[in-house]
Structure formats: C-alpha cells, structure tokens
Amino acid sequence: MVSNLICWEHKIIILKSKTKKVRTDMNYTYHYLYKITNKINGKYYYGVHNTNNLEDGYMGSGYKLIRAQNKYGMDNFEKQIIEFFDTSEQAFSKEAEVVNEDMLRDKNCYNIVLGGRGGDPGEEIRKQNSTKIKKWHASLSPEERKIRSEKISKSVKKFNQDNEEFIQDVHKRSIETNRNMSPERKSMKNKKISESLRKNYESKTEDEIKSKIDKYKNTMSNKSPEEKEISRRKRSKSGIIGKANMSTDAKRKSVEKRKETISNWSEEKKQEHSRKMKNIIYRYDFLTETGEIRIMDKSNAKRYHPNWILIGPTKDS
Q: What is the overall mean pLDDT for the chain?
C-alpha cells in the first residue's frame, strides 16, 4: 500500500508539472550525464541534468537515492560528470544505453527505471517489484496493516485538502478530454481496459476470487452504520457524477444495453427484479447550510428546508 501511495503521489506531481511553464533546451547551457556514488557502501545512481550553473548543487532525484541520502547524509555521496552533450535528447539517449535492465538487476544500483526520458522499469522488473511488495504485505500482521492503512488514508486526505483546486481542475480536464476523444480512440481505450480486466480476472483462481469477496464482506460487516452510510454515499455520488458527465449518445447506448440485458433474463429473474424495484424508496442527498449531507424525501426537504442544495438522487432499500 505504501508503494501505491508513492505511485499515486508521483502521478499527481507529474500532472502538476504539466500545469507549469516548462523550460526548453534553448534555456539551458549544459546537458550532461552524471553518476552519484555512496562512499559508504559503493551503491550508485546514473542520471541526466540540464542546467545553466554547474555549481547548482544538484545531487540527483531518484526515490531510492533520496532515501539513501537522508539516511547516510549528503556528505557521504560524491557526484561525477560522465559526459557533456549539446542537447538534453542526446543526454537521455546516452542514459538509455547506460541504465539498462542488466543494471537495474544490480543490487548496488539506486536507479529503479530504465534510462531515457519517461523511463520504464521493464516487464521483468515490474514483476519482481510486485512480488516483493506482495510478500512484504503478506508478512504484516492485521494490526500493522490497519495502522499503515490509517496513515496512508490521513496522508491522502491531507494531500486532497491542500490541493483541492488542482485536483478538481485535473478532473475537469480529464472529463473534457474524454468528451472530445474520437470514437475510434474511445473504442481503442475501452478495448484496452476490458482486455486488462479480463487478463487480471483470468489470472486468478476461483479460491483467490472467493477470498477477495469474503474479505470485502468481512470488511463491510465490521464497519459501523455511519461508515457504511459514507461508503454508500460515495458509490452513489460516483454513479451520479459519471452519468451527469455522459454524452447524450452514451446515455442512450447505456439505456439500450440495459434493456437488452434485461430482455435476456428468465421470467423468474424479471419477476424478482420487479419485486425488488417496487420495494425501493427513492430519496435524495441534500447539502445543508452547515455543510452536512442529509438524505430526505425530495418534497419534504424543499418544503421545510428551502435553502438546502439538492446534490442528487439516491436509493435506500
């Protein structure tokens, strides 16, 4: 889970950088490949740096490297400039040759991705890292998992609060991008997602799937009524927001697909579904003047609380 948090923060940082004005190669005088070595244990790191000042004190930016520098102290690391280049592209190209999969397998290497701009750790390294994380997570006791989960949850909540406007902006731009996407690209994207989900599902045994379902049921059964209500609201809002952002054509296709699915049901299943729908009480989420969310009948809420804001419909059985 710690690894997931790091990856999530990394994605946000990348998105943040895209909103800033990026300096081009024309702004920099020097482009070079460097090597940083830990004088205590001999571990090393290769990277590329673009700068106008060779004495700017830059000492790398890799995650493992920074963690080691915090542990051993910056004085125990030395930097060596390997080669200068005319452009950053030439420097990244050279880094791609140097930092290869063989180097990433070396335990003394601080690099975690292949060299070059937008480096990729490679399929083999990803599998190794995934296995290590799963093994480490399995070794934790339930109490340790709960403590770590709470710490991550607090960190994510704090990050969301501190960057609320930025996250909303990213969400809006993401929705706009999806709306403007060509039908061919949308089809390709959906196909990739479906293929990924199918491979993930097929790679699991029946026991693993059953274990995940049991784990989810156990988690929900241990939640308080308040926690269950929060989870239900999140799921409800997610569906409402998703539908609100759908195009008219997408909504029409969704309805047609739903009708087609129901038409293939047996008569017994249709009758059972009809009985369940009759027992559903339609209610609505309202944002109160104090910032709380209340669930009430639509007419009663507006009659007695005219200043409440309607968020969206919800269903309570």
A: 76
Between CA 13 and CA 20, with CA 19 as vertex, the angle to 5 degrees is 95
- What ranges do the domains of the chain cover? 27-120, 281-316
CB of 32 closer than 8 Å to CB of 48: yes
Number of Cβ within 10 Å of residue 33's Cβ equals 24
The region, left, alpha or beta by phi > 0 then psi within -120 to 50, assigned to residue 215 is alpha
**C-alpha to C-alpha distance for 94 and 85, rounded to whole angstroms:** 9
Do the Cβ atoms of 120 and 134 come closer than 8 Å? no
Mean local confidence (pLDDT), 169-177: 77
The pTM of this model reads 0.39
**Number of neighbours of residue 46 by Cβ within 10 angstroms:** 20
27-120, superfamily in CATH?
GIY-YIG endonuclease (3.40.1440.10)
Does residue 50 contact residue 89 with C-beta atoms inside 8 Å? no
